[in-house]
Write a structure and sequence with these properties.
The chain has 104 residues and is mainly alpha-helical. It has one domain. The chain has three helices and two strands; from the N terminus they run H-E-E-H-H. The chain has a two-stranded antiparallel sheet. Helix 1 packs antiparallel against helix 2. The longest helix has 35 residues. The radius of gyration is 21 Å and the shape is rod-shaped. The two termini are 33 Å apart.
Amino acid sequence: MIRAIGILCIVAGLLAGAYNAYCEFHGIAVVTTPIDVGSTVQLPEPVTPADGANVYRGAHLYNWSLAAMVAGLGVAILCIQRHHNRMDILSPDRDEEHRSQRDH
């Protein structure tokens, strides 16, 4: 179950990165900004370089950072899960590791 969550995070991060590359190629960036409708509803809003270079670059920086953090979270989850399997006495991964060390 944990491995599946890690893999899903990595896939989501890669898909977000691919979408960011697509948006950057087409000269748009999608950001979530609050709108004033009397509530805290936030809707995605496209930003173009005409809206301001700093706003556009900031939106892309935010989107790329978010994609990298989600993929990094997935890698961290897989690393922690693998370490946990190595330390678990009942895990089949531990038996294979000890067998390969004894054979050498």
